[in-house]
Amino acid sequence: MVPQIDLLKRLVLSKFPVTIIQTEDAEQVIDLFKQLGEYEKKGFFYWHPEVGIHLLKNPSEPIANTQSLSSALTCIEQSQHFGHFLLRSEMCDAACQDGCVNTIQHILKTPQKSYRKVFIIGKQPNIPLHLKSKIIVIRLSTQYSGQVT
After folding, report:
1. Cα–Cα distances in Å, from 31 out to 4, 5, 60, 95?
2. Which residues pair with 55 in a beta bridge?
3. Given the DSSP bridges, would you call strands 136-140 and 146-148 parallel, antiparallel or unpaired?
4. pLDDT recorded at residue 83
5. CB contact set of 70 (below 8 Å; sequence gap of 6+)
6. I need a surface site. Which of 64, 75, 127, 131 has the fewest CB within 10 A?
7. Which of 72, 88, 84 is nearest to 23 (CA)?
8. Separation CA 105–CA 53 (nearest Å)
9. In this structure, are strands 116-122 and 83-88 parallel, antiparallel, or unpaired?
10. Angle value at C-alpha 31, between 30 and 34, nearest 5 degrees
């Protein structure tokens, strides 16, 4: 298995409910998650404000009423099933302005046995300092040499 996909697999299995993956090439990391999903037979969800939350491999069937970041995070928080959710960091910068911080805090309090994970991918998102200590941050270069911080 490609080392980067192995790293993502370990993150999926980790106890951390929220992970920031810092990279200059978010699309390539999202593609790696897509490959991991196919290899491991896992469904990864992707949020985009124009579509909402949808399966990464099938964007034509979004979850209704999840176009806004606030509604997407609420859907993630209330999710009772397995869920691995990918968010682009540049689309999440509004989180501090639109009242999403409380929802992120609830997601961070998810029991460790839960299989609900959120991956924020891209440049460093604008996450409040008091939340950063509870979130794991991974830096991936464009050559995908993974480095845990």
Report:
1. 11, 10, 17, 24
2. 45, 58
3. antiparallel
4. 82
5. 98, 99, 100, 103
6. 64
7. 88
8. 20
9. parallel
10. 90
Using alpha carbons, select from 44, 87, 45 the residue that is nearest to residue 68.
Answer: 87
Identify the CATH class of 3-148: alpha beta
8-state DSSP, 56: T
> What is the identity of the amino acid at 45?
F
Per-residue model confidence as pLDDT tens digits over 68-94? 888 888 888 887 666 899 998 877 765
Neighbours of 33 (CB within 10 A): 22
0.90 exceeded by pTM: no
Q: Which of these ranges, 50-54, 60-64, 88-92, 93-97, has the smallest mean pLDDT?
A: 93-97
What the block records as the tokens of 57 is 């491999």
Cα Dmax for the chain:
40
For residue 13 the two structure tokens come to: 């299995």
